[in-house]
Amino acid sequence: MSGLTLENIDKNFGAVVAVRDVNLHLPDGQFICFLGPSGCGKTTLLRLIAGLEKPSRGRILLDEEDITHIPAYKHNFGMVFQSLALFPHMTVGENVSYSLRVRKTDKSAQRQRAQELLDLVKLSGLIDRHISQLSGGQRQRVAMARALAIEPKLFLLDEPLSALDAKLREDMQLELRMLQQRLAVTTILVTHDQREAMTMSDLVVVMGPDNRVHQMDSPLEIYRNPADTFVADFIGTSNLLDGISSGSREVTVSGARLEIAEMPDGMTPDTKVTVSIRPEEVHVLPDLEKGDNRLHGTVSFVRDVGSSVEIYLDCNGLQIVSQSTPKGRPAVKQGDQATAVLPPTACVVLRS
Amino acid sequence: MSKTLRNIFLGLVLFLMSGPLVIVSGVSLNAKKRLFFPPEGLSLRWYVELLTENSWLIPVKNSLIIAFTSSLLALSIALPLAYFLWRYRVFYARALFTLGISPFMLPPVITALGFLSFWVTIGFYGQIFTTMISHAIFFVTLPLVTISLGFESIDHEIVEAAETMGANSNTVFRTIIFPMVRPYMISGCAFAFVLSLNEYIVAYMVAGFTVETLPIKIFNSLRYGYTPVMASVTIVFVLLAALIFGLIGRFGDLPKLLGALNPEEK
Amino acid sequence: MIEEKPKGLRAYLTLVYPTLMLGIFFIVPFGLMAAVSFFHRQPGGFYTPGFELTNYKNLYTALFGRTLMFSLFIAGLSAAVCVSIGFPFTYFITRMKRRVQVVWLILLMSVLSLSEVIVGFAWSLLLSRTAGLTNLFVWLGLMERPVALYPGFAALLFGICYLAFPYTVLVLYPPLSRLDPALPEAAQTLGASPLRTFFTVVVGSLRNAIVAAFVMVFVFTLGAYLLPQILGRPRHWTLSVLITDAAIYQTNMPLAAAMAIFFMSVSLVLVALTMMIGKGKKIRTT
Predict the structure, then answer these.
(1) CA distance to partner chain B, nearest, from residue C286 (Å)
(2) Which residues in chain B (153-172) have CB-CB distances under 8 A to chain C?
(3) pTM for this one?
(4) From CA C73, how far away is CA C237, in angstroms rounded?
(5) Rg over CA atoms, chain A
(6) How many structural domains comprise chain C?
(7) All domains of chain A in start order, with CATH
């Protein structure tokens, strides 16, 4: 089985647990994001793969070969660090061709390859420039070009875009994605920005404050079917409603019965659950309308941000947020009585 | 603090710092063989005498040779020590570092006395190489401190980046660490060189009667007969130091070498 | 690669040469000197190995006691003066533009390179009758006749402070240049005048650096050997002079060694005390 496999990985620093019980298989050629809040262990996981740290327990396999104990300098991986770590005493070209220099490639070949890479990241002409003379975006690209010099097996990036301003960041995200597709290199990017992860990757690995992997799936799947309340809350915004399962396809929330299209396997009645539903799936009707999957309440707040309208409903102490486009905006204002419709297909039931 | 008060303060300090130098340069240019200021006529004869009289040339030569060898020797001891302390985590790191800075931190007379007992005991008292070695040990502190500063300034991620690109520890040292620490090695060595040129008590105790260094010659002259050549020597050495540090300041980052971090451009 | 535990004998290879050098040429001489302090002195400059406390007993002279006290006193005073002037001075320097800083630093380093002998010589000139400051005062009409201002206590103090000043600045430079400029600015926005800001914020946050600088200058000036002889009278001679005198002129190595060991112990105790006081203050206020 080709690709990168992590088996039963634990990593402790003294008494502090950084990574707990991680089992992953990452297929070749994909753009993968490790996503999670600060301290969840995503950077540690990346460093374990890079060989900069050794796992306290478990194995790492690349294309079936055990690489757990191989130190960083023996791998053929390319890594971009958060601080970029460009060598201050070298020029752009010398930085980019460093991995070739280490492998004793001859000087003209080094320079040629450096030129190729700089063309690739659209920095041709800067080959003899000094690092201190570059802008933030340029330094970014040099760091990437440098990591890709030896056509690495894995392309690893540790929050590489966090120091950039918003506009530049978005441009770089796109460029990085296109670069990866062009080179078809297996890429792992660590980020805490879920929008970044969702827009760039083929696969997202979500890690939580308990230092475990909560879900690994395509961005859309994670959004539509979060595995648990943490993922549902971390990715996008979500309404999280506490309730009790009351049937094979039914959950009772705040006295109201909700029909659910799909329930988790092995769900028994009278189990505590959380229903997750995205605001854009909630319809709001004026007045108290009777019907299936409806909750009644009062409009507590309306937020119009121009591109969308958010309506906050207070249903017997339970807050439900609905989001709609300006065109589809329901005819309600603050203080009105209204009904929230929660379609069965949009409700995701998670165990509490 | 108001600007004028600050400037008065700085002006005063500047005056006090350079005052003695001004006087000494004036005396060194005095046409007559007297320690007068302002000079009674300008002449460079004392500088000429410094460069032609053997009684001065020999001490100058001794001082230069000793300074050169001892500063390089000090560097050779300080570099591996600083490297080891930076690279490895050991519980006795503090003790090692204290050992490295002790020779310079103790009152010189004590260190000098220690050296004296040592050389006398093993029977090499009076040879020039004893001064070289003693100075090297005495001044080890200087490159040790500057080089440690240099290591401190290396971002760990830079080393890791090099590792991910295939560099083993030897290659990392050769291509990354050494070039980045080199300016600090040079400044530490320059420091030791300049201080060795001017050092009296260790040189005196260890081989003072047979190997006359410039400071020994100057002190003897002070005791047994004034001559303005002493003034010209002083000025030459100050200019030499100013030249060396000026070069470092011009081609290197002097504030950074002395411990400042990289600030935004002011 | 960094901050790992050393693995295997190869890792210790870099340590071998420096420790060997320092061991043979520093620790051994030191130990030797400590041993010699217990040896028996033979008239004529030799000593036989043995163990006796005679040398230490011989320290109990009025001369030694007085000289010790004076040495400690002048060292403490110089340290206080150097740090009081050096601290604000270094602070101003670190706030200047880079270019101007470099010029000041070159000046400081050049002055620093001056040895004790030259400093003594330069100040003896500055304070002399024929070429010194008093001539300036006469010219300005403040005095009638030029006069020699040395040898004397003030002359010695000036000389020592001059010698130690560049070191003070060098020791205070790293911490002061790293002081976050936002700190004094924050204090000022909270209503503190520049003077108050300086004392409460700048001095306050760098207490440890100040203590360290004080200790360093103190130890440094304890070692003054030539200045007391050039700029001071015999009653101003420090312990370093006494020790060298015993070692060279009286050829009484064991006595010299005993004095040196004692001297060192006293200064170490004082240094430890100062550092404890410095740290103690810190604990109480947090």
Answers:
(1) 26
(2) 156, 159-160, 163, 169, 172
(3) 0.80
(4) 12
(5) 25
(6) 1
(7) 4-230 (3.40.50.300), 240-351 (2.40.50.140)
